[in-house]
Each structure stands twice: as C-alpha cells, then as structure tokens.
Amino acid sequence: MTNDRLFGLFLRTLAVPLLLLIVGVGGYILYSFWQKEAIAKELYRWEPVLAEGYTVTEVNDKGEFALHYTYRYGGSKYGSGSLSPYDELNDEAWNDEKFLEWLSREDHPPLTIYVDPADPARSSAVRGWAQGDRAETLFAGSGILTVGLVLLYFSLRKVPEVGELFKDA
After folding, report:
1. How many other β-carbons are positioned within 10 Å of the β-carbon of residue 125?
2. Please, are residues 90 and 103 in contact by the beta-carbon 8 Å criterion?
3. 48-57, Cβ contacts within 8 angstroms, sequence gap of 24 or more
4. 36 half-sphere exposure, CB direction, 13 A CA radius
5. How far apart are CA 34 and CA 31, in angstroms?
6. Which end of the chain is more exposed for a tag (fewer CB within 10 A), N or C?
7. Which sign, positive or negative, has the C-alpha torsion 121, 125, 131, 137?
C-alpha cells in the first residue's frame, strides 16, 4: 500500500463520521419541521368555540403571564390554563410578544378556543405555529441533508487510479 492510498484512507476515515453528522443534522431539522406540521394539521381539525370567560394574570416581574379560560362544548363546561396541549407550541406562544399584547388588551376581546371533538377536555387557545421561519427551516434542512448525502457518496465511492483506466483488458 502506497502512502497516497494510506492518506486517502485516513481522510475517508475522518470525513465519513463528519458527513454522517451533517446528514443527521439535516434529517433532524426536517423531522422537527414535519413534526410541527403534523401538530398544526391536528389542531386545524379541532372545532372553534368562544370562551365564556378568561383571565390573564402576570406571574412575575419578568413579563410572564398565566391564562385561565372556561368554555362550553357539547353541553358540558370545561376550563384550562394552557395555551396548547403541546409543550413546544405552548412555549412558542408564550414567547410571542404580539400574542401576549393581544391577550392583555384592556377591552378584553373575545377569545376563540379550539376544542378536540374526540376529547373536549383538550383545548388550545392557539391553532397553529407562528409563521416565523418555517420555509427557511424546510429549505435549510433539505439543503443540509442533500449536501451531506452527495458529499458522503463522493467520499465513499471507489475511484480507480488513472493508470487502471487505460489498462488493456
């Protein structure tokens, strides 16, 4: 084995784990994107109901709020204090300044609650994800995954030496 071949093997040994990591990052970004899309799709099947009443109270001086609302569905009365049954959506909604500004308005506008028809105790004050950078996330994940797979292919394929290409068969 020549030094050139040994050096190529050494580079491949270093490149493959790095490229697999890049592929994994791209795959995770796409997975989290489609997971959010599945949650949004589920929430859009829920039925809108006007809240009978709601209160918004400031929890601490950091600007954190708590919400409690009541609603009727199917003749029964329910109440909840969460914005969504999904923790990650809950966190994103609480960090949305415009949403908090709307909730704490003095004119106390009507609040629409979205109720799960299969389990009316499950409700959500937010119906989907804030638009934010969803398209950028999809394109970034797709790009990272594609580049990682292409580079992985080129690092693993067998490349014949130039001398072997012109040998007589």
Report:
1. 22
2. no
3. 48/112, 48/113, 48/114, 48/115, 49/73, 49/112, 49/113, 49/114, 49/115, 50/110, 50/111, 50/112, 50/113, 51/110, 51/111, 51/112, 51/113, 52/77, 54/111, 56/103, 56/104
4. 19
5. 5
6. C
7. negative
Pair 122, 85: CB distance under 8 Å: yes
Instruction: For residue range 52-94, list pLDDT tens digits in order.
Output: 988 887 766 666 678 889 999 988 999 988 788 888 777 777 7
Q: How many helices (H) and strands (E) does the chain have?
A: 5, 6
125: left (phi over 0), alpha (psi -120 to 50) or beta: alpha
**Structure tokens given for 65:** 């709020």
In this structure, are strands 123-124 and 65-73 parallel, antiparallel, or unpaired? unpaired
CA distance 71 to 116: 12
Separation CA 114–CA 152 (nearest Å): 45
Q: How confident is the model at residue 71, as a pLDDT?
A: 94
